[in-house]
Write a structure and sequence with these properties.
By secondary structure, the chain is of the alpha/beta class. The protein contains 15 helices and 22 strands. The protein has a nine-stranded mixed β-sheet with strand order 9-10-8-11-12-13-14-15-16, sandwiched between helices. Strands 17-18-22-19-20-21 form a six-stranded mixed β-sheet, sandwiched between helices.
């Protein structure tokens, strides 16, 4: 809950009508989810204007609306708060609410790949000891982060949030909003190359999360990433990795179609432990190590960490394992980048090897937002396919032709399709018993729809 007086204090808004102090049960920007005694904030965007829904929100029980322009047609008794910018006000309210919760710790995660999975794993481990709130789905931007912070409850002890970015200054702004006590950087990859132009610039933008930290806080960094491992911080620096000596280091990594096992040795506790988790791939081991590092630093026991990984489930469409008869599906269709494509090909090859039978098939679509490096990046995916000896590849989308060309040139059986419907038909025609099929591409390419087209009646 947050009071009207606190909202006014945070936003410097003006109450144009009403005036009595109120206690809001919740804060929302979606008129469809307005509850009784909520504060409705009218955000505006390219294709929507929340001001059009203020009357609807009031009719559904909202106690007040927060706007950036006068709305003369609202009921005369409506409590209306006028501000210069509703998005900025939303962020100011969320920040004030977060800072009013004196007993919580905020853990913030950024990186080019693995943010959401790492968030899920950290939250799962910490939930064994603390009351945890985490970012839902991947609401990791200037609207999603305030939404998460405003879900903090009176008994919440830890908040685990993602921070995404598209350019310089955005991570800094999100960090100032959430004021985290600890941060995690998963890696630096080519995502958003179109806007930032170089890996060095992407690393610089990600490292904004380390600014103005102090010795009482801690930073968890991927020690196997050449960019992240070099980052400096005034906070206590903890590292994780498989290749390089780290605070928490994994060995004996084994992936099968049912999950992954590994051993990790911790300098934080001095212990060595075994983890079995229903997630596949070496990259998920890295995500797990980040979570283990945070959990150990925050006093979660080895036994609770082990239990958390045995039970964990990731946000949908991130290497989700599905089975249709004797066919294994790896649904990794939520998003794609060159680094995650490489990891996915390794995982597909590992699962095939552990199965001991069947073919490896990759159904792929474009990776977006790569700018001038796009063609080269897609050709490199073709190289990953060749290196991992994937048996058959289907791809669609303008950029993905380069994947097919590169793979076919090396003798891989590969088919280019104009669209996902054609790709679905090709897969139907080529599928065999015991196949292991990976689906991956950028979110807007809707690769997961092919699963529905091919397997909806199975």
């Amino acid at each position: 809950m947050i009071s009207l007086s606190k909202v006014i204090e945070a936003t410097k808004g003006i109450v144009t009508s009403g005036g009595k102090d109120l206690l809001f049960k919740g804060v929302t920007t979606d008129s469809r989810s307005v509850g009784k005694d909520d504060l409705f904030i009218a955000l505006t965007g390219e294709n929507f204007d929340g001001h059009d829904y203020c009357e609807t929100a009031l009719n559904k029980g909202a106690a007040a609306v927060l706007v950036q322009k006068e709305l003369p047609n609202l009921p005369k008794n409506a409590v209306v708060i006028l501000v210069a910018d509703t998005l900025k006000a939303y962020q100011q309210i969320a920040h004030a609410y977060r800072m009013a919760q004196k007993n919580i710790k905020v853990i913030a995660i950024t990186g080019s790949n693995g943010k959401t999975s790492t968030k899920d794993l950290i939250a799962a481990c910490l939930a064994k000891k603390y009351k945890v709130v985490k970012t839902q789905a991947n609401f990791n931007n200037e609207i999603g982060l305030p939404k998460t912070l405003l879900t903090i409850k009176p008994d919440t002890e830890v908040v685990v949030v993602e921070m995404g970015m598209r350019g310089f200054g955005q991570i800094r702004a999100l960090k100032e909003l959430a004021e985290p006590d600890a941060v995690v950087i998963t890696n630096v990859g080519e995502t958003h190359m179109e806007l930032l132009g170089s890996m060095e610039n992407i690393a610089k933008a990600k490292s904004e999360i380390l600014e103005n930290m102090n010795e009482q806080q801690f930073a968890v960094l991927n020690n196997d990433d050449i960019y992240v491992s070099k980052m400096a911080t005034s906070a206590e620096k903890l590292t994780y990795g498989i290749i390089n000596d780290s605070s928490v280091r994994a060995s004996n990594v084994i992936t099968s179609g049912n999950g992954t096992t590994f051993t990790y040795k911790s300098k934080i506790t001095g212990n060595e432990n075994f983890i079995k988790m229903p997630l596949i791939g070496r990259h998920n081991v890295m995500n797990a190590l980040a979570a283990i590092t945070v959990a150990e630093k925050m006093g979660v026991s080895d036994t609770d960490i082990e239990t958390a990984f045995a039970e964990v489930r990731l946000t949908e469409k991130r290497q989700e394992i599905l089975r249709f008869g004797d066919i294994t599906i790896i649904n990794d269709a939520y998003n794609a980048s060159p680094a995650s494509m490489e990891a996915a090909m390794k995982t597909l090859a590992e699962v095939k090897k552990s199965a001991g039978k069947g073919r490896s098939i990759a159904v792929l679509a474009d990776m977006l937002e790569l700018g001038e490096s796009s063609e080269d990046a897609h050709r490199r995916v073709g190289d990953y396919i060749v290196r991992e000896k994937i048996d058959f590849v289907i791809a669609y989308g303008k950029e993905s032709r380069a994947i097919i060309d590169q793979a076919a040139k090396a003798g891989i059986s590969a088919v280019y399709c104009a669209d996902k419907e054609t790709a679905a038909n090709e897969l139907k025609n080529h599928m065999q018993n015991n196949d292991i099929i990976l689906f991956k591409g950028s979110h807007s390419m809707q690769v997961d729809k092919i699963i529905e087209m091919v397997f909806q009646n199975k």
